[in-house]
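Inputs:
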Amino acid sequence: MISRRDFLQASVAASAIYSAYGVSNLSRAAAQQSLTQDQLLDFKTTGNVTLIHVTDIHAQMKPIYFREPEINLGVGEALGQPPHVTGQDFLKMFNMAPGSADAYALTYNDFSTLAKSYGKMGGLDRVATVINAIRADRPDALLLDGGDTWHGSYTCLKTEGQDMVNVMNLLKPDAMTFHWEFTLGSDRVRDIIEGLPFKAMGQNIYDKEWDEPSEDFADYEIFERGGAKIAVIGQAFPYMPIANPGWMFPEYSFGIRDQRMQEMVDEVRAKGADLVVCLSHNGFDVDRAMAAKVKGIDIILTGHTHDAIPEPVLVGETMLIASGSNGKFVTRLDLDVRDGRLMGFNHKLIPIFSDVIEADKTVAAAIDAERAPYKAELEEVLGHTDSLLYRRGNFNGTWDDLICNALIDEREADIALSPGFRWGPSLMPGDAITREDLFNATSMSYPNAYRSEMTGETIKLILEDVADNLFNPDPYYQQGGDMVRVGGMGYQIDVNKPQGSRLTNMTLLKTGESIDPNKTYVVAGWASVREGTEGPAIWDVVESYIKRKGTVHVDPNKSVKVITG
Amino acid sequence: MNISRRNALALGGAALTVTLVPVSFAQAAADDAMAQAVAEFTGGADIAEGGIELTTPEIAENGNTVPVGFSAPGAKRVVLLASKNPGPVVSFFTFGALSAGDASTRIRLAGTQDVVVIAEMADGSYTQVSKAVKVTIGGCGG
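Outputs:
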């Protein structure tokens, strides 16, 4: 019998997404001619079980541009390991040609140029086509949704997630776990999950008062597929009440709770599970650490940190799968499960090139129906951008620089703070900025833009706290997300120092003076997790700024100096 | 509006108790108090590691009420300590001979620190376990 390790190594070539097309100056027509739906879906059906994984869709029903990060630093054991490999290093690691469709889908390099060739990605109607094709091969394939599904767009906000629930139900998921969904408020979440035709799960969702597993969510479900018992255990985002406003879901507690995860694995094994899958919203590094601690998980379908990795990552005997975000990718994982063991597999991270994959008509019509009542608002042009607007990256992105500029201008602040969210699609230079685009980057249920006075010491304390949530060498102490974006102030950060000594050289950009710990500065920001935060909604602040400017221009941010050595 | 440090932190996120004494002084005082509390419990005896299971959140959802549980089978007496609290002793537990030696409670933590459990076993030996619990401002998320 071939060992699991041999299988993983043997699979490297087979699992890479379809490679090697043309160069970056291909016209879109040429790129589309060289890419076909059949190529994207080409797959050697393997074994007796198929898993389909989607995660972190962030309510993106329509195709989008999404630039992957340029800077995604790993610390501790994650240093230099996927997903902490970007750009050219990523292309080398996975043997991809610069300018290829893979390079466009998975890296930041030449993004604006390549986007012209390869077009937008995602769209749930295209995702539906891919899922239908997989089900044509394997009718009982399991579709597993890693969460962050009912958040992130104008229509999702206005319908409190109902548009996404309706459209996702057409795709017929078999299980789902959660993160941003809870920011709809716990009453609304319970309302929705009562009507779901599949299990809402999270073994780490606890009743806060009794410190016991919540009865509102399943721990796991065991599916019979291809003569094997497949256990799927849910793991919701562990740091809900810390990263998001706990007052919106006061009856729940979360946490990693890996001891209970071990109990669940042992329990499903005792019930005869041949394969144990964890549907996780931990974030990749937390999953990597959990895989080393909890014994007996065969596969972790990771989520939260929005990483797209074209091959499974092996930790001991556990395979980690990272399926990207915003509907850009669908993972197909075929498994040969026999006699209580995983004997072989075939994996493909399928890129959803929206100009290549045909839209499923039923789902396309459902998406249009959900959007129809809001059409005029969605399409209203607020202004234009002559810069590429993107968000992902550890320290800054032009979307957040724009938001920070708007906060400083509109709110008359010295310094602006914008949270290091990883959601939010990109806009190309020259694009119109519609209301839909603005909400794709700001939509949330706690949007108030505060304005307050803080001392230099407090500002440093806040930034050090956030930096430790990103760069603590033990992933169990990380929350995921990126560094809070700062406008109006520059700083230097040494990611390998302990909390309290990472940040130095904090400088007020408008005067060039050092930040004085005892001096008071006017700070504007948004998305505070504190109840009762006052101020206009962030989208109103940014809309007013964009309308005033007409065309926005965002210079590359050179005010953060990063030390990694 | 001139916002205090405490208010600013609350503005940033979840409740966080912050001491206003200079950090270095507060830390030295807390370290002394911790050493003293440990010495008082053990009488200066050697302390082994392990043999106790300690359950804490890695990051506290609310520093004012952090669920903490331990299981110290065979323990006669247990002290629960919050190493950097102004007063590190949280509570003492005394177990009868037929007890499982486990307990859980909720404690308040004045910032990121180690939670320590030291048990005196039936034979008079001591063993300990500790876990770091982070108390954070919060916010952001992926």
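Remarks. The longest helix of chain A spans residues 456-471. Residues 1-25 of chain A have pLDDT under 50 and may be disordered.
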